[in-house]
Design brief:
This protein is mostly beta strands. It has 2 domains: 32 residues, no CATH class; 304 residues, no CATH class. It is built from 6 helices and 22 strands. The strands form 5 sheets. Strands 1, 2, 3, 4 and 5 form a 5-stranded antiparallel sheet that branches. A 5-stranded mixed sheet has the order 19-18-20-21-22. Strand 16 and strand 17 form a beta hairpin. The longest helix has 9 residues. The relative contact order is 0.11.
Amino acid sequence: MADADWSDLPKELLNMISERIDIEIDMIRFRSVCSNWRRSSSVPNHHLNLTINFPLHKSLSNSTITSFCCLSKRSIFLIKPQPPQKQQQTLIRPWLVRITQNSSGKKKRFDPFLSHHSSSTSFYLPRAIDFHKLSVLHLGADFITNELAFHMLLPQKVISIGKHSLFLGILKNCTPQLVLFTCGNQPWKWIPEISTTSGDICVFKGRFYAADKFCRTVMIGPDSTVQMVAEHVVHGGDRKLLVESDGELLLVDIYESLDFGINVFRFHEKEKKWVKLMNLGDRVLFLGEGCSFSASASDLCVSKGNCIVFIDDSVSAYWMQGGNGVYHLDQGRVSPVSRYHEYFNLFSPPDWILES
């Protein structure tokens, strides 16, 4: 009996299958099978939302200027080869990479993580990377735009939840208030109950959370209702960043001064308060303005966790290099990430990628 030719499956069936894929790396693998599968899954309104139209405020737009800007989803992956069975104990350096795709999924761009990595940093990637042969861990995503950065109504940060895509955004240099919006031509819904000046937003357990500079934290519903879930923390720092780590919501309180310091808190849902953590264990936090995420030291193939890596210029410190630094909680100090090669090398293509 001849083997089935999977490339000849009907387009309608392939389309139905692709619409049920909820994980982006699975969609990338699905589309890489063959050209027929790729064409059949080019659905503009697929709920993975590779691009979205962000509505600009109508009072600052006119008939000659579009009232939307286009945001592209940029996903964060930790990738490494799947070792042969006999070499399971061999540590192979993984690659921490951001990948941007357009709405059809055809174009992929590999973006450098560290802010001092520029286009002059030259390396040659293979023409195609076969994700079927890789171990891939999806760590997070952000949304970016190619619009002029000085437009004060462009979003500083956007997060999303749900198949029907509800979005929460912070505007850039305009207002400390949040905006809630959906795909389509619907206007913003302002969230006036909390200010995000020096605060942050994130998704935790499929829900929107926002914290202000005093650590007051709210949960925002899809109908724009706001529920207070944690009161303020006394004697806080200058900047707050939220990050999900191993099933828990963490708040990183940052003191941006010459005496740079950090406190980390864990959200206690039942008691509705932030509880200070003294140790992150095996976890490594990666903090940035557009997206924060975490991974285990074992997944990263680094010697230990219990540290925080700053990946952009969202936080300023004298000892950082272009906004990039590593803070070890057990040492209580921050240093340029270039001093720690096991972290610094995560952001550059490893030999097994360049040689593939």
